[in-house]
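protien #1 (seq + structre)
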Amino acid sequence: MVKASLSGARAKEQEVRAVAQPKFTNTWHPWAHGKVLDVLGNVCKAENLKVARKEYSLSRGGANMFGVWEIDGMQTGETRFAAGFRSSTIKEFALAFTTGARVFVCDNLMFQGTFIEIHKHFATLTIETMTKMVRKVFTQTLSGYREFSQWHEGLKKVKLSEPQSASLIVKAMKSGVLGVMKFEQFCELYESERYASTLHGFHGAMTELIRDNNLVQTQVKHKQISKFITDAYIILGSKAAH
């Protein structure tokens, strides 16, 4: 069993696979995390998809698992297509798979996706059912990935003046998207050479700040950041177009 000290923390694959599978009942089939990974791996192999990177988080002593697999050879600009998934062996939430875009430039580790295939751990949750879920998220979300990639690239075209940058920082702190304690670190990142004075750079610096969070916290925070940047993009992007 995985020790409780791993709760909410990044974990290695062998630690994820070490979590024991509870006994099935007539109505509850809590598959082991390792079985979930096997299904995902088998689909990737069948579809000739090579996994470039794997990351996991465990919580509740290993009972809850969250993961992201980046798919190699499916990238546009600074994003890569990725599969995200979650599972619980203690009835805390349903099994879910998603796919979407992941920002890998400067190791920001951002993952943008929506859980579109969800199944509770009922007796109907079989290996075959999980396989169909994974295949569906791969085949139905490529268009969404391309849209996100275009949005991400579009951020580079929105130049930010010093007043605009200062205004965005204040708004980010007031909204809670940027923690006050992270202010100095954010400024150092944003003003560094790798982040130009654009909305793309602003977005990159914000996502880099949270790269050491566990995957659960990271996913929640990225949604907040994406909404904040999207709102700014709508306003500033329209101005830049004129």
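ok now protien #2
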Amino acid sequence: MDKSRGLYGRDVVEEAQVDQWIDWFATNYEKDFYLAVSPHTGRNLQVTKEEQKEALERLLTGFKVLESHLRLNTTLVGNRITIADISIAVMLNIAFRFVWDEKFRNKNIPNITRWYEYLINQEPFKKVYGKPVLCKKALDRSLFEDKTVKKEEAPKKK
């Protein structure tokens, strides 16, 4: 199969760069991403707040590489959208929609945010995910923890 046409880059060098970005995120930061973000959406509440904080710190440390790259580039590889952009943006989508509010984005990931906004405003992305939405007020895990506690404390019917 000739992957060099389309979303996988224009030549073998770009193909390798696409693979590098996908592997970089999946291998180094996907786990920390889920640990840092999922409790805010009511998932993985067994992750302690300290573990969540540490995962976010590791993620932000790694994102310095992505921030630096996107400071000078609109996309991850070459000068057009590739599957590397799509795969990482899709992973980050839930955080941008529900967890990473404007203050967080501006302070920690302004270049990643610009890149993400560029991607979510492309028609193919909108067809799948709908109208572009960025988080205005971050969800907090305490919203879900409170419901769990209240359910457990509710008096049982006799």
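The mean pLDDT is 90.
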